[in-house]
Each structure stands twice: as C-alpha cells, then as structure tokens.
Amino acid sequence: MDVMQKEVTEATNERVAADDNAKVGRSKSRGRSQNIQQYKPPSWVAVARVVEKGYNLSYIPPINVNGKPLVDITPAIVEDVNLMWKECLVGYFVGRKLPFKLTEEAIRKVWGSNVVDIRMNENGFFFFRIPNEAFRRRIVDGGPITILKVPLMLQQWHPKLVLKKGQHNALPMWVKLKSIPYALWSALGISAIASAIGKPFYVDVQTEQLRRIFYARVCIEIFATQPLLDTVDILWDDEICSIKVEYEWRPLSCEVCGLFGHTKGVPGQACAESVVPLVGGLVDAIVTNTFHPQSNWQQVRRKKGGSSSNTESPSTREAVVTSSPVLEDNDGLVITNYNDGENASLIRSEAEVEPTTLPPPYTRSKATVSDPSSESQTDKARRIWVGWNPMEIALEVLSMSAQIIHCRLRMLALNKSCIFLVVYGEHTFVARRSLWANLVLSSSEFLEMSWAVVGDFNAIRDQSNRIGSSNAWIPAFDEFGECLLQAGLDNLRYVGHRYTWSTSSGTSRKQRKIDRVLTNDHWSMAFSFSEASFLAPGISDHSPMVIKIVAPSSSRKPFKFFNYWMMHPSFKDIVRQV
Predict the structure, then answer these.
(1) Assigned domain for 269 exists
(2) What is the extent of the structural domain holding 421?
(3) What pLDDT is recorded for position 518?
(4) pLDDT attached to residue 262
(5) What is the tally of structural domains in the chain?
(6) Mean pLDDT within 235-246
(7) Would 512 be classed as within a structural domain?
C-alpha cells in the first residue's frame, strides 16, 4: 500500500511540474518582462526513469593472490552465458577481408531465414547467429565457404574459443581446367587431371550437368609448398596433350614455412609485400614499397626507357604487378560450400570478360598537373587529368588506368588523409566491367581507411536517375548498383542539381545522373561535416562537382558543478591533490 501511495505521489508531483512548465511557456509569450522564471530541475525519479537499464549486477568478491585480486571463473558463471553465443558460428576470411555489407548480403542469399543476425568485431571476426542446430552442424561439416573467391573459415562458438586467425598450410581453391577432351569429362577423368594440381574435392553444378563445356570448374585442396601449375600434361594412347589451368584466386604463400598469407622470407612473418596476379596481360614495372595500406598494394613505376607494349618476353620483365580479378565469369558472385557444391548461389550472371591489368602509376613530385609529353603513357591513359594546389593538398598517385586514378590525399589545413579515386568510365557496359572490378577490389584494400570515389561513371544506378529515355532497362544496367553495394559505397550528402548531364532541349531533352561523389563509412565518420555541391553546367554538358569539407566548430563547453559533490567525504582531499 505504501508503494502504491509513493508512486501516486510521484506521478502527481510530475504532473504539477509539467503544469508549471506550461505556465512558464505561456508567460514567455506575453512579454520580455515576464520571462524570468525560477528554473526547477527535474527530480531524481524523473532522471532515473529516462535511463533504460539492463540486467542487474551483483558483487562477486575476487580471491586474493599475492596481494592482487584474481577473478575465479566458476562453472556457475560459465553456465550463465548468453544463449545467443551458443547459436553462433564464428568465421574469418583467409587472405583479404571483404566489406561487411557484401558478406551479409551473400550469406543471407544462401542461408536465408536460417541466419537471424550477423555481426562483426573490430578484428574482422564474423558472428553468424543460427538457432537451428542441425543447420549449423551441416555448415560446419561442409567445411569452408567462399565469397567472391575468398575462403571464409567457420567453426562453432564455445566458451573457451580464442579469436585468433589460424595459419593454414592448405587451402581449397576453385580451378578452371580448359580444353579437356570430352571423353574425359567424367568424375574419374576430371579427378585424374585435377590430382596433378592437388587433392580434388568436387566440381560445380554447371560442370556436372554440362551447362558450360568450355572449361571444368573444380574445387581442389592445394598446399602452400606446391607450385601452382599453369598446364597439366596428360598421356593418352602414347600421345601427350596439355590442359590449361586457371586459378580464380592466388593466395600469397611461403615456401620456407609452408604457410599461406605471406611470400617467401622469414618463417611465420609477412616476408614481403606482393600483389596477387590475375589472368591477363603483364605489366613491365619495378616494385617499390612506398605505400602500404591494409593489404597487399604496391606502388610501381615504369623503368626508364621501357616500352609500354606487352610484346616483350617474360624473361626480360623486372616484375609482375597485377591484381586478382573480382568480376566472375558466367558464375557471377558465388558463395559456395566446399563440400556441398549443389548449394552454390548465383547472384549475377554475365559473359566471361578478361580483366585488364592496371598500368603503372604516374607520379609527380614538383609539377601540380601531369605533363603528357613527359611520360610514355598511351593516349587512352590520358583520359583523366588531376591538378592540385601543393599549398593546400599533398597528393600521391598510387596507380592509374584508363578509367580510374588512385591517389592518396592529405589535406594540410586539417592534417587528415584519405584515399581519393578519380573516375571516367568507358561508354559501354562491357568496357566498364573492369572498372567495377577495380572498385570492389579497392573496397577490401581500403576497408579501414577513408576513401572517396569521384567522377563521371557513364552509368546510372536505377531508373530514377534518368529522364527522357525510351530504352528498356536491361540486366547490364544493374551492374553499377551491384558494384556500389559490394564496395560499400554510397552518395555523399549533396545539394544542387540532381541530374548532372543533359543533351539538347525541348521534348527530346535527356537528363542523367552519371556524375557522383561516393564515400565509404569511414569517410562519414572522419569527415562528417562534408558535402558535395553539383553546380549549373557551364561550357561542359556536365555539372561541376565541388566537395566541401568543413572542420567542426570548436566551442567552449560549459562545466557544471553540483553542490552535493561537496558533501562527499573525499571531496576536499581530491581538490587538494589537484
């Protein structure tokens, strides 16, 4: 009864306080002479009710060992663990990290409603909550899965699980075996050929059902000490023929310690930085370790007097610097279980395109604008020009291709750095696919850095980005939106013109939003006061883009002193110490 009376009294006091506040508001509107009111601070009850509490805690005294408290974890404490953790699978990527949004989308497409929550900690470990115990066991028993050709190692959570990425001496990889005689297109025939590379596991569904007959796609376990063969010779009726081998992913491996993750050198350490090669032309370059983001990027420069063609024999090349392909062939973005090939999920299907390698970067230390006559770059590589004021910006070109320039930019006034990409997309969706691959790859390389992608993409994200077009929407138009989703990029807050390009006028006028300023989550946190302005077109048919980065205003913050502090027994002693 006393408790009910106390609650009624508190509610009455709060209602009276609310009425007083309303009267104060009305008195302020009557005139300046009546706006001086005595401030009534909220009661402790009102303040306590605002804060939402979690579960209550209790004091558990620690034991004392050598004068130092030691917490003894008893079985009763362990049994009180949150049930959520028991329903989690813990995983991490081997090689390079993928963005959280891309991982979440791929996992939910394959596992569906079986996974109810996905989280990631600061060390790159993913937690997949799956209440269905049978489904969790099926995934763990199936072994690792791959997302965008990167293996994701999974295991069941348990109370003493140590979140430490293991060292792997063998990894399953997807391999393409080309020009296989159709008489050998069987489980035994493909097994015999694949065994020359490693331990074969299985083929994909397209290979089994002969939906794709120009190569066989096989999952093979390969050890770090094994050389990656480019061809496999077979002996058939005293005749020898070669089977071409292509690897969808080439992880770094060390022949000394026999582990994946780094190249030859000191055992157990990152012996040397390198970039994973892809299928395509080779780049004549000299490697210089001048810039190292989170993963395996290297800055390269062309040899003096070197040729820009790729007709030179491999023996005369100083180094091979390429990057792993991101766009799949007609398998699309595939997440695959190594021991459950029939569960492969095709997210996108497109024609096979050989990705092009990035030409060596072009850097200048003195001039602010590149001089086309000073370097042996092709005309196609001069599609993008970058100029800057060295009094305000310190800029370093990391790499360059016909459609994109990677720069590291430092704003001197703010003393902040970021990765800045300038884009000029090709005019056909087939030619732009290498650009989308570049952006997705860059998203994993610069995952922990602030980066912006700016320029003319020559592509629209959805149908709302165009006006005045009778063309039907085809699946190829979706590639730009899929790229942004996979790369974790989104539009920077902007003002001004929505449509950035237009042609003619009148009834035949066409408008498109093909120029964008894209940023990742780290940019939003580091430059929360930034915005883009799309100005009116001038001599060009494109809207100029201006990025404004305003430093947050620093103001004096008030200090509040509560009188009840002086009633604390240690108040005077603490003040004297200060």
Answers:
(1) no
(2) 403-549
(3) 93
(4) 62
(5) 2
(6) 88
(7) yes
